[in-house]
Write a structure and sequence with these properties.
InterPro entries: AAA+_ATPase, ABC_transporter-like_ATP-bd, ABC_transporter-like_CS, P-loop_NTPase. The protein is α/β, with parallel strands linked by helices. It has helices spanning 53-60, 102-110, 117-126, 142-154, 172-187, 199-205, 223-230, 242-251, 271-281, 295-302, and strands at residues 2-3, 9-10, 15-24, 27-37, 42-46, 67-72, 87-90, 160-164, 191-195, 208-213, 216-222, 233-239, 256-258, 264-266, 285-292. Bound molecules: adenosine-5'-triphosphate. Adenosine-5'-triphosphate binds at residues 24, 27, 29, 47, 49-55.
Length: 316
């Protein structure tokens, strides 16, 4: 159970997007999208460039007009009293006046929700900006700007957080910090909804995944279920004679190939089959393990037909 901005305990909030739709002229940007976001979990929002992620977030926040509705604990945002902290968002990395100091930026936003000066200090410390709080935000690096955007989003401790590509351009330390921070925010019973193109990061971060392409829902699953359902199991092996191992696997009727990194990849889910092939071929195994396709491979397959922008010819 989480605490609200006033310190009272509140019940967790879920978010339902119901038949969302949006057109720009004849172009359908969001096409009848429905999904639910659960409290206490991080949902990754994925899709190729132009798939409609930002438009969907804007529709859900009431920043764009379209069809359908979004319910926060069963009510539309407009049904809450003005100033109620329902959803915090960070949609653009530099959504501040460049001449305004970081603390002044948060102070201005804090007035909407009657946030105390102590809370502003607390948030600055939480996102690691205390030392630069009196510097003009225009001089901030991308990483600092992303932290300030996050600070603004969590200022009133909203039960729901929407973040549009918050980890773009961040170095490894900052990405790790963001991941840890978002995990702890979700663990407090909050909804965290994050769009990103960073697949390996999403695989580490998200509990659930919503994938859209050309405005339509492609997948809406728990990360684990998605990888189980669409990810192929395969066995990776390295032997003292990879060529002979591949030849033996082929003789056994098993699809196998030698990868650039020196591993034999066999389309089976049992390491024992590859071990048997190695014994028969009289080759020594140096490594043997089972793997499942990564989120990146699953995503590429699921969205292969739906890229908006495809290079007209392959580059060398
Ligand atoms: N203001 C606008 N006017 C016209 N078309 C728009 C507008 N905003 C978005 N679109 C179009 O709507 C579609 C969805 O765009 P959107 O920015 O939501 O995609 P996205 O998934 O966030 O893309 P990216 O990953 O590249 O940020 C695209 O075809 C885009 O060109």
């Amino acid at each position: 159970m989480r605490k609200g901005a006033d310190g009272k305990r509140e019940t967790p909030m879920n978010v339902e997007a119901v038949h969302l739709g949006k057109r720009f002229g004849s172009r359908v940007a969001v096409d009848d999208l429905s999904f639910t976001l659960e409290p206490g979990s991080i949902t990754g929002f994925l899709g190729p460039n132009g798939a409609g992620k930002t438009t969907t977030l804007r529709l859900m926040l009431g920043l764009a007009r379209g069809s359908g509705q979004t319910l926060f604990a069963g009510k539309s945002l407009s049904a809450y009293r003005p100033g109620t902290p329902v959803v915090g968002c960070h949609l653009q990395p530099r959504a501040f006046h460049p001449k305004r100091r970081a603390r002044a930026h948060l102070d201005m936003l804090g007035r909407i929700h009657s946030v105390s000066p102590q809370r502003i200090d607390e948030v600055l410390a939480e996102v690691g900006l205390t030392d630069v709080a009196n510097q003009r935000a225009g001089g901030f690096s991308l990483g600092m700007a992303q932290r300030l955007g996050l600070a603004a989003a969590i200022l009133a401790r909203p039960p729901v957080l929407f973040l549009d590509e918050p980890m773009n351009g961040l170095d490894a330390h900052a990405v790790y910090w963001f991941r840890t921070f978002l995990r702890s925010y979700a663990d407090q019973g909050h909804v965290v909804f994050v769009s990103s193109h960073l697949m390996s990061e999403m695989q580490l971060l998200a509990d659930r995944v919503i994938i859209i392409a050309r405005g339509r829902l492609v997948a809406d699953e728990k990360m684990e279920t998605l990888l189980q359902r669409y990810g192929k199991p395969e066995v990776l092996a390295r032997a003292d004679d990879n060529g002979r191992l591949v030849a033996e696997l082929h003789r056994m009727g098993i699809a196998a190939h030698l990868r650039d990194d020196g591993f034999v990849v066999a389309d089976v889910d049992d390491t024992g089959i590859v071990a048997t092939a190695a014994t028969t071929a009289a080759v020594k195994l140096l490594e043997l393990r089972q793997e499942r396709s990564s989120l990146e491979q699953v995503y590429l397959e699921l969205t292969a037909q739906s890229q908006e922008f495809v290079p007209s010819r392959s580059t060398p």
